[in-house]
Records
---
Amino acid sequence: MRWTLVASAIVSVALVSARDPGGRNTRAPPSPRARAHSGVPFDKWTRDGQRAKFKGSKTDKYIVNGTGIPYVDFDIGEAYAGEMSISQDLNGPDKFYFWFQPSPNPEAEKEIVIWLNGGPGCSSLEGFIQENGPFMWQYGTFRPVPNPWGWHHLANVVWVEQPINTGFSTGTVTAQNEEDVARQFMGFFKNFVDTFSMQGYKVYMTGESYAGMYCPYIANAMLREEDTDYFDVRGMLIYDPSIIEHRMTDVNLVPFVDYHRNLFPFNDSYTQEIHDIDEKCGFAAIRSKYLTYPPPGHLPSPLPGINPDANTSLPECGPHYLTNSVQEAITDMNPCFDVYQVATTCPLLWDVLGFPGSFDYLPKGASVYFDRQDVKKAINAPLNRTWASCGGPVFVDGDNSPPSSTTVLGNVIDRTGNVVIGHGALDFILLSNSTLMAIQNMTFGGKLGFQQPPTEPFYVPYHSNSDLGTLAGAGVFGTTHTERGLTYVVVSLSGHMVPQYAPSAAFRHLEFLLGRVDSLTSKKPFSTND
C-alpha cells in the first residue's frame, strides 16, 4: 500500500440526531438506480452450506476458523493462512506469510489472483483488511464489516507478505534487486501451488505502489519459465505504481497543485515561487514535449535540472525538493494532510493498523490489530514476531533495479495482452501524469507509448448498496484508454489505494482483468448480479 517516504465516491450522509434542536431532517441513503447492484451478499454462494474446496492433509495446518477471528463477528468462509517456505526445503528458515481466500463463485475455477502491497516492506495484510479482502476495517470505524466488494467474490485470492522481513515473513534478508525478489516469490508460489493442488491455474498478478516494481518483475520471471503448470500468467493489474524514477513527481507536481487549487490554497507569492521552479528546472518544457500522443521519443537522460558539468542537480531542481516544499507548505495549512489522498483534513482518524494517512499514529489504549497475540493465534502467524504495517529493511542495501517501465513491463504487456494500470486522481505521492509519462516512455506492441490520449469514460455500474459501512460510488468514475494490450484508467475521487477509496471501481477493474466484462467503458451490470 504505502511508500515509506514519508472513496469510492466521497459521500456526505447527513445523519443528524433526532434530538438536534435545529430540527434538521435526517437524509436517507439515495434511492437505488435501475439495474442496481448491492455489492455481493456475503453468503451469495454459500447459503446452502459452505463447501471447502481446498481442505486436505497438506492444507489442514493452514486452516483459519472463519468464525474465530477476533472482533470479526461473522463467518468469512473457507480461509487459509500461515508461513510457507520459499525454497525446496519445506522446513527452511526463509518463509513468506500468506492469507488465501478461496472464492465461492462458480466462475472462479482454475484462477488465482495474487495481491502484493508495496513499500518496499509494507504488508499485504493492509490490502487484505482495508482494501479487497473478505472483511474491512477502515480508518476511524468501530468494527470490521463484511466486504461486499471483496475480490474473493470474483476469484481465488492470495495476499502475500514479501520480500523477507515484511510483516510476518521471516528469514535472512538477501535480496539486492527485483530479480532476487522474483526468485524468492517463485519459490514460495511453487510450494503454494503444490500445497493447494493448483497446478494449471491461470495466474493474475495484482498490487499497488511499489508493487509496480514487484509485480512486473515477478510476472516477467514467471513468463520466462514457460511453465503453465505453476506460472501461467494471464494478466496484471497495478495501482498507482512505482514504474518510473521518483523525480517525475517533481516534474508533474505544479499542474497537479494548480488543478486542485482549492486543496492547495497557497498565497500568490508561494504559487509564483513554485511556478518559477517549474520553469527554471525545465519541468514545464519536458511535460510540453513528452506528455503528448504519440510521444516524440524517449525521455532525455538525465532529466532537466541536472548540471551536466558537475552531474549534480541544481539546488531547487534536486530530487524531491519541490515535492517536499509543497508538502511542508500545505501541512502548515492542513496539519492532517495525507500524501495518499489530498482531500483529507483533520481530525486524524485512528487506524487499527496504526498507520492512517501519512502518519504512524495509534491513540492511547488502542493496539495494532495484527500484533495482538489473540489475532496471531487465530490466523496462524508467528507469535514471537512483531507485526508492523510497514517495516524492513527487505533489501540488503536498497533496490538497485531500474524502473519496471524501462525493463520488463513492456514484455509482460506483449506476452499477456492483458495489463491494467490504474491510478487514483487524488494521489500525491505518485501522480497520475507521472504514470502517463512512464507509459509514453515505454515500448509495447511495437510502438512507443499510447498513440491517442485517454478520453473514454470509465463506468462503474449503479448499485443499491445502502449499508453505511460499505458505501461505494457508481456512474462515470474517471477516464480510461486501451491500446495494444495495455489499459490505463484514472479513478476519480480516489487516492493512492484505489480498492480502499473506490472499492466498486476496483471490483470492476478485476472483472475486466479476468475477462468477465469486455471494456471499462461498458455499462453492463456487475457479473455477480443475481
Note: The CA atoms of residues 214 and 307 lie 32 Å apart.
---
Amino acid sequence: MSKRNALSAYEVVNTYDYDALRKVLFEYGDLRNANTMAKQILAQREHAPIKTTEKLKEVLQQFLPNGREHKILAQIYQAIRIEVNQEILAIKEFLLQMPDLLEDSGRLSVISYHSLEDRLVKRYIRAGQLYR
C-alpha cells in the first residue's frame, strides 16, 4: 500500500462504521461472515485500536478455521487493500476512458484477479459501451 494514499489500512479498520466495514469485507473479500467480523472489529476498537495485522488476526481468530486460516486472512487483507487503493474506482475510471483510447478496430484485453473486477468488466463490455 502506498504511503501517498489519503486512506490507510489503519483508518479502514479503526474508523469505518459497521456498515462501511461490513461492505468492505463482504464485497471486496467475499467473506460470508462479514457481518460478525465487522461487529468483532468494532467491539475490539472500544478497548483499543487495532494497530497491526497480527492484532487483526488475533481479533478475528474465531473466524479462522484450521487449514483455511491463510485463505481467510488473505481475503480479509485483500478487502482492506482494495478499499485503501480504491481499486474498483480505478477499474471503473479505466473502463470509462477506453472508448476514447481504443481505435475503431481496437481490441481490449483485461486480466482480473477478483470476481468483483471480473463482473465490472463483463457488465461494461456486455452493455456495448466499449464499441462505438
Note: The chain has two domains: 9-85, 87-126.
---
Amino acid sequence: VCVEKILAELTEVLAETRGGDSRRWTDEAVDFEEADKLVYLKAALAETLRLYPSVPEDSKYAVEDDVLPDGTVVPAGSTVTYSIYSVGRMKSVWGEDCMEFKPERWLSVQGNRFEPPKDGYKFVAFNAGPRTCLGKDLAYLQMKSVAAAVLIRYRLLPVPGHRVQQKMSLTLFMKYGLRVFLYPRQLQKPNSAASH
C-alpha cells in the first residue's frame, strides 16, 4: 500500500510538472521543486529512519558536569551512549503502534504536509537540538531522488528465500544485502498509476 501511495503521489507531481506523457517522466531525475512536493515519500522515508536509523547508536562526551532531565548526574569526562534504534521503537515515545510502519504519523491531518514531531528530541535519526545534522535536508533530497528514480521505473519484488537480516554496527545495514528482482514498470496516467 505504501509503494502505491508513493507512486500515485510521484505520478501526480510529474504529470503536473512534466505533462501527461509518461515517457517524459524518466528523462531526468526529479528536481528540487518536484522533490519538495513528495510529502508522502518523505513521510515514508522518515518512518523508515525511525525504525531503521542509519546510525543506530550515538555517544556524547561530557566536557563538564551535567544533570540529565531525570536527575541523573553525568560527571565531566563521562561518555553517554544512547540507542537511536531503541528510541524509534519505544511505546512511551511513539505510542502503542510503535512497531507498525505508518508514514501517516508524519503527515498533517489533511495529509498534504510533512509534519515532524513537535518534540525535537523524539526523532533523533539526524540527532537533535543544536547538533542536528547539517546534511539532513540534503539527505532527504537524495533519498527522495533515488527512491523516485527507482520506483517510477521498476516494480521491486524480493528474491524468494533471500534472508533479510539487519546487522548492528557503526551504521545499520543488511547483513546479506537486499536481493530483489526489478521489473520495468508500465507507466500510466496518475489516477491509475498505483495499480501497476
Note: The mean pLDDT is 93.
---
Amino acid sequence: MKRNADLMAVALASVVFALWSNRWSGFDLWLTTLLHDPSGGGFPLRRDGIGSMLLHDGVKWMSVVGWMLLVSGWVFLRLRERGRLLLRRRFGFVAGVSLAAVLAVNLLRAMSEHSCPWHLAGFGGTAQFYRLFDALPAHPGPGHCLPSGHAAGAFMWLAALPVLSVRARKAALAGTLGLGLFAGAVQIARGAHFLSHILLSAAVCSLVALAAALILSRKRVPE
C-alpha cells in the first residue's frame, strides 16, 4: 500500500475537491457560467469547430494510438520465443488496467442521471441542475455525463504507475495528471462537463489502478 500511496492520494484528493466544487460550494456553476457567453450563442470553444476538434479529439486519439502501440508491443514480446518476460508483463498490466479504468468510467457514466452543462437551463438547454447526492429533480435531462469519459482517456495512464521506478513514477504521475487536467479543461470550456466530472474521472481511474496493483502484487507480478 505504501508504494501505491500516490494513487490513493489522487483518489482521495479528487473526491474531496469534486465534492467541494459540486456540493459544498458553487464553483462548478461559477466556472461554467464564466465560460458561457449567452449573447454569443453559448460556449465559444464549442462553436469553434476546428479548435474544438483538435483539442477535443487530439487527446483521445493520442491515447488510442498509445494503447494500440502498447498492445502491439505486448503481442510482439509474446510471439518471441525468448521475449523479455518482465517487460511483457508490464505491458500487459498497463494495457489491461488502463482499459479497465476507461470501461469503469464509461459504465458509471452510462448509469448517471447527471446531465452535461450544455443541456442545463441557463446554458442553452432545459434540464435542471442538481448537486451530487441530491434527490433527482423533475427534469434532470438526458444524463450520462458523470464522470468524464474524455478525461478518462488521459487519466487511464495512471495504470502505468505501479510498474515504474520511483523517479519514472513521479514523472508519469505529473504528466498524466497534467494531460488529464488539460483534457478536462477543454471539456469544461466546451460546456461538456463540470470540474467535478473531471475530478471524479481521475478518482475512478486511480482507484482501478490501485486495486489492480494490490491484487496482482499478491501474485508477485513485478512492479
Note: Residues 5-217 form one domain.
